[in-house]
């Protein structure tokens, strides 16, 4: 734990320039502190900037007050609001150094609000700095909450959501300098916050505000990083909502636009895209799986069971991976993919009967039995009827004769050729 | 405690160390529940750094995977021969002879 805090602290001191204390990522834009020279009018306000939250006062009053007071002399030494921002920043560093993540987080909230006062009155040139301090805010919220808490992350989400409005409500800047170029990044960050605390329903309001606004540039015109993150979360929301068609569309676009330099993010996208595409009848190629060993491990048992029509092997894979699949919210999608396996089994029975157009149900029943599916003739009939209704088999069942009458051509269409493949899942 | 979720390196996480018992479970690595979509190393990049080239100009998510080598939309294999095939064949033959009915009508 000490090591973790020390690592975090070190990262933070490297600070605004390149990385956050949490994610070893390179910052795109300049630090808010170094941009302070360019800022506007001199400060006359900001007394509240150094005010401490009640929690801070209760626990740390002597030292914090002292720290804050000692910083107050620097007020006005550079243009407002950058003096406030800089003072907050130094105090945050001090609090992190003293192992007070909750105080650091509260201080960062105040830093954001000082910054936003400048932000809303200017064009979007400070967007990189906004992104940077919001990332820090979220990371500090994580540290303040510890492994179990969520209050700071909820608060962080609210603060970030407020800056969303500040981005969206830019009616004066020329479009190329508009604060609107920040909306997708900020929305991505809000969704990240709410996903982390598993309160995804709370994303609805901000997404509604985003979708109701038709004055923002097209998503495709934003930096790819913003697009991909946004589409990943929209795709995930659709997936969890079982809107598989939309989920597949968003995650497909996210995957193909994602940089190959972020294989971890590609893995996360594919973890959901692969099952979605399987349901559509597209299997991931060996070439794809080879690039992502984790996904290869997870999905290969299912894929080889589908290819051979071996239901028992498919069910084994479901049982073996059940816990993980539940954690990843993937169990339902893979259970539905079992129909592909069933289709291959029934097709193989038909192939072994030399592709006859009439197959007695007892053969399908036998095939199901060999595949580990103990059914009687009625159950077999029911399963075949389902496959017909879902477009996996073209034909009909003569119930009196217990006979499946198959189309003379294309009796087992490719699953990828079915129209509206998600309509039946 | 606190920093553990955020200060860990994004890659090469010792996922195995956390769940030593489940040796044959898939090692989920970056897919561990705790993990999340990462910040990109840069805000923007060009086509050359994506998988778009695999599409060969087709729209992503088209019904046919076309030249996209990452997916297969026609994977029916009419000549699989493995243990399961043999079992299936023998069972079908058994049903055919014992039931007295011809395979075709």
UniProtKB/TrEMBL annotation, chain A:
Pfam families per UniProt: PCI
Highest taxon listed in the record's lineage: Eukaryota
PCI domain boundaries: 228-411
Region (Disordered): 22-67
PROSITE patterns referenced in this protein's UniProt entry, alphabetically: PCI
Biased composition (Polar residues): 31-44
InterPro entries named in the record: Csn12-like, PCI_dom, WH-like_DNA-bd_sf
Family statement: Belongs to the CSN12 family.
Name by which UniProt lists this protein: PCI domain-containing protein
Organism: Mycena chlorophos (Agaric fungus)
TrEMBL record, chain B:
A Pfam family this chain is assigned to: DSS1_SEM1
InterPro entries reported in the protein's UniProt record: DSS1_SEM1 (IPR007834)
Taxon lineage: Eukaryota, Fungi, Dikarya, Basidiomycota, Agaricomycotina
GO CC field: nucleus; proteasome regulatory particle, lid subcomplex
Keyword line: Nucleus, Proteasome
Residue stretches spanning the membrane: none
The UniProt record lists the keyword tRNA processing: no
GO biological process: double-strand break repair via homologous recombination; mRNA export from nucleus; proteasome assembly
Domain of life: Eukaryota
Subcellular location: Nucleus
Protein name: 26S proteasome complex subunit SEM1
Function per UniProt: Component of the 26S proteasome, a multiprotein complex involved in the ATP-dependent degradation of ubiquitinated proteins.
Family, as annotated: Belongs to the DSS1/SEM1 family.
Nucleus among keywords: yes
Main location as per UniProt: nucleus
């Amino acid at each position: 734990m000490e090591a973790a805090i020390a690592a975090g602290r070190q990262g933070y001191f490297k600070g605004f320039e390149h990385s956050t204390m949490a994610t070893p990522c390179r910052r795109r834009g300049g630090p808010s502190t170094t941009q302070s020279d360019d800022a506007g009018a001199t400060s006359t306000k900001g007394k509240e900037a150094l005010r401490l939250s009640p929690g801070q006062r209760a626990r740390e009053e002597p030292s914090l007050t002292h720290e804050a007071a000692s910083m107050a002399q620097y007020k006005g030494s550079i243009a407002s609001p950058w003096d406030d921002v800089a003072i907050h920043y130094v105090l945050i560093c001090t609090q992190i150094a003293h192992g007070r993540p909750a105080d650091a987080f509260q201080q960062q909230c105040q830093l954001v609000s000082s910054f936003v006062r400048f932000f809303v009155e200017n064009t979007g040139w400070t967007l990189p700095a906004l992104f940077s301090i919001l990332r820090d805010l979220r990371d500090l919220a994580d540290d303040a909450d510890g492994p179990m808490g969520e209050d700071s992350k909820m608060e962080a989400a609210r603060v970030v959501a407020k800056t969303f409005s500040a981005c969206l409500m830019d009616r004066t800047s020329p479009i190329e300098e508009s604060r609107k170029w920040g909306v997708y990044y900020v929305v991505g960050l809000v969704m990240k916050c709410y996903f982390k605390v598993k309160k995804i329903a709370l994303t609805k309001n901000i997404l509604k505000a985003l979708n109701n606004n038709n004055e923002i540039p097209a998503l495709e015109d934003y930096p790819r990083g913003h697009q991909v993150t946004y589409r990943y979360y929209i795709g995930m929301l659709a997936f969890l909502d079982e809107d598989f068609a939309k989920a597949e569309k968003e995650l497909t676009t996210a995957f193909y636009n994602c940089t190959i330099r972020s294989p971890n993010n590609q893995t996360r996208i594919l973890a959901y895209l692969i099952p979605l595409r399987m349901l559509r009848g597209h299997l991931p190629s060996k070439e794809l799986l080879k690039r992502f060993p984790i996904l290869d491990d997870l999905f290969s048992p299912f894929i080889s069971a589908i290819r051979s029509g071996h239901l028992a092997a498919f069910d084994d894979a479901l049982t073996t991976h059940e816990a993980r699949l539940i954690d990843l919210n993937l169990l339902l999608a893979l259970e539905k993919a079992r129909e592909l396996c069933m289709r291959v089994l029934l097709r193989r029975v038909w192939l072994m009967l030399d592709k006859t157009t009439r197959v007695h149900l007892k053969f399908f029943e036998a095939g199901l039995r060999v595949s580990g599916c103990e059914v009687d003739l009625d159950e077999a009939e029911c399963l075949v009827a389902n496959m017909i209704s879902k477009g996996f088999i073209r034909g009909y069942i003569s119930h009196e004769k217990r006979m499946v009458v198959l189309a003379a051509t294309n009796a087992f269409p490719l699953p990828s050729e079915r129209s509206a493949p998600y309509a039946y899942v | 405690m606190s920093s553990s979720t955020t200060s860990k390196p994004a890659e090469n996480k010792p996922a195995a160390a956390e769940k030593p018992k489940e040796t044959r479970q898939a090692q989920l690595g970056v897919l561990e529940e705790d993990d999340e979509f990462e910040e990109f190393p840069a805000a923007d990049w060009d086509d050359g750094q994506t998988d778009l080239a695999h599409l060969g100009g087709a729209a992503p998510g088209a019904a046919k995977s076309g030249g996209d080598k990452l997916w297969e939309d026609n994977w029916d294999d009419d000549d699989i021969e493995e243990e399961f095939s043999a079992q299936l064949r023998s069972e079908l033959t058994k049903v055919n002879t014992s039931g007295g009915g011809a395979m075709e009508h």
